[in-house]
Design a protein that fits this description.
Layout (H helix, E strand, L loop, with lengths): L1 H11 L2 H7 L1
């Protein structure tokens, strides 16, 4: 289920935000 929200989240926020979350 998280995989489905991940793609959409990436579009909303930059990859930098994703890296920080990790």
């Amino acid at each position: 289920m998280n995989t489905l929200i991940q793609p959409k989240h990436t579009s909303l926020v930059p990859s930098t935000s994703l890296d920080n979350s990790k």
